[in-house]
Specification:
Elements (H helix, E strand, L loop, with lengths): L7 E3 L8 E4 L10 E7 L8 E6 L6 E6 L2 E4 L1 H4 L7 E7 L8 E6 L8 E5 L6 E3 L1 H4 L7 E7 L8 E6 L5 E5 L4 E3 L12 E7 L8 E6 L6 E5 L4 E3 L1 H4 L11 E8 L8 E7 L3 E7 L2 E4 L1 H4 L7 E7 L8 E6 L10 E5 L5 E3 L13 E5 L8 E5 L9 E4 L3 H4 L2 E7 L11 E6 L5 E6 L8 E2 L4 E4 L6 E9 L2 E10 L5 E5 L5
Parallel strand pairs: 7-33, 30-37
Antiparallel strand pairs: 1-2, 2-29, 3-4, 4-5, 5-6, 7-8, 8-9, 9-10, 11-12, 12-13, 13-14, 15-16, 16-17, 17-18, 19-20, 20-21, 21-22, 23-24, 24-25, 25-26, 27-28, 28-29, 30-34, 31-32, 31-35, 35-36
Length: 486
């Protein structure tokens, strides 16, 4: 039976709320999708999509031409067939276009690949072996980050069956430094996110570990990393072999300006509110997002532009009929309510969730991947009415040369001329499960008509704030250049 060209999904309890439209359903119908990662590969101003698949199905690269997609992976040289579990975009060579690191499973007997963008996104060349990053193992989260604040992107690779690896970018080659810096976690890592949790001017690393292993929070002390997860109460110790954590994600859930940490997992989810100065308190039950199913990916996004972040969490199970996803909508009273049952999505999102404005209309669309046999990798367009869609700002954070090398930078939006915080976001360092995007930070604004924007980036001078005042919402993507590293 052929899928209808358009499927509309409405929030029944909110007649004026958003609807979603299924985009090119036949193109995105293939099952077996795992990581999904977005970036503008050709510099045309809209975001393109990479999807990695289970073994035997070619990976896909969807070029976005004004909201219409076409798969160009074979022509671009990245239609790999081995079981693909992770993908991350980042401009590792600083040439102004984004490159792609792809991670495979050990059973695929394929070393990870680093695809250099040869310009314009039309073709990519694997340079992993030449640069010393052709690692092999049960690869999970990949992150392009600048851990040493020297202005170029370093590479972190998490493994489920081997010590995690950190590669320092030395220009002509990468150097493996994870062992020396004590960040080579030997536990079974399946998710990771980098953010400056203690607000000292460098990026720290949270790792989500499986099979009963405690989670880790590696504080970046410059010369080395120190695991402070137990000290800060974010390690989730004492779990059985059947429990563990998966996809972590970061947002400012309570609007206090500090970045909080959500951790999806088997057995329970955790929401660690950041109290400032590196202190956390667990609040998943208080906010209504504790869950209890086998949660895998998680992703934050204000899909209705009401100024409050919402959360999509998916549960992975072996039988598709038992899939249980959650779309937690943030209510005015502070708690979250699962509104997904009213959407009646035809498939779950076992391995990938991304909120992304692919059509540049100001609201967040939804990209999912499901690797179950009856799954798909659908893309849903958000049909929020246009005036509401424009009640947002989208900020692309770049360095002084206009390059996407500022992963982990923080964006805060204030009511114009005040210090009233309207919303926050993080330049992606790993989200949606085993993926990393290069895309603007989206902040919904409610009813604000003019805003001030602050971008906090990391540098040798520690935390540096770049401000832009008097911004009118709904005017497209705003590019903010951050200062050069010194």
């Amino acid at each position: 039976m052929r899928l209808p060209i358009v499927i509309l999904i409405a929030l029944a309890q909110a007649p004026s709320g958003p609807q979603f439209e299924l985009v090119q359903p036949e193109l995105f119908a293939a099952a077996g999708g795992q990581p999904n990662a977005w970036a503008d590969i050709d510099g045309d101003g809209d975001l393109d999509l990479f999807v990695g698949f289970q073994e035997g199905k070619p990976n896909r690269l969807y070029r976005n031409d004004g909201g219409r997609f076409a798969d160009i992976a074979a022509a671009a040289g990245i239609a790999d067939l081995p079981d693909t579990r992770a993908a991350a975009w980042g401009d590792f060579d600083g040439d102004g276009d984004v490159d792609l690191y792809v991670g495979f499973t050990r059973r695929a007997e394929t070393r990870n690949r680093l695809y250099r963008n040869d310009g314009g996104g039309a073709h990519f060349t694997d340079v992993a072996a030449a640069l010393g990053v052709d690692a092999i193992g049960e690869t999970r989260q990949i992150s392009w980050i600048d851990y040493d604040n020297d202005g170029d992107l370093d590479l972190f690779v998490a493994f489920r069956d081997a010590p995690n690896m950190l590669f320092r970018n030395d220009g002509a080659r990468f150097t493996s430094v994870g062992l020396d810096l004590h960040v080579d976690d030997r536990r079974r890592t399946v998710g990771a996110v980098w953010f400056d949790f203690d607000e000292d001017g460098d990026l720290d690393l949270f790792v989500a570990n499986q099979n009963g292993d405690a989670n880790g929070l590696f504080r970046n002390d410059g010369a080395r990393f120190v695991d402070v997860a137990g000290e800060l109460g974010v390690d989730a110790p004492g779990r059985p072999e059947t429990a563990g954590s998966n996809g972590p994600s970061v947002t400012d859930v309570d609007g206090d300006g500090h970045l909080d940490l959500f951790v999806a997992g088997y057995g329970a989810n955790f929401l660690y509110r950041n109290l400032g100065r590196g202190r956390f308190v667990e609040a998943a039950a208080e906010y209504g997002v504790q869950g209890g199913d086998k949660a895998t990916p998680s992703s934050w996004g204000d899909y209705d532009n009401d100024g409050r972040p919402d959360l999509y969490v998916s549960s992975y199970v072996d039988q598709p009929i038992k899939e249980h996803d959650f779309l937690f909508h943030r209510e005015g009273g502070g708690r979250f309510v699962d509104v997904l049952p009213t959407l009646k999505l035809p498939h779950g999102a076992t391995h990938g969730v991304q909120w992304v404005d692919f059509d540049n209309d100001g609201d967040l669309d939804l990209s999912l991947t499901n690797n179950n046999p009856t799954g798909a990798h659908p893309l849903y367009r958000n049909l929020l009415e246009s005036a509401r869609a424009r009640q947002s700002v989208e900020i692309r954070v770049v360095d002084d040369r206009g390059r996407d090398t500022r992963a982990g930078s923080e964006v805060r939006v204030y009511a114009a001329g005040t210090r009233r915080l309207l919303g926050s976001g993080l330049v992606d360092t790993g989200s949606g499960y085993c993926s990393q995007n290069v895309m603007p930070v989206h902040v919904g604004l409610g009813s604000a008509s003019r805003v001030d924007i602050e971008v906090t980036s990391m540098s040798k001078m520690r935390r540096v704030v770049t401000r832009q005042a008097g911004v009118t919402p709904g005017r497209g993507v705003l590019t903010v250049r951050t200062p050069a590293f010194r």
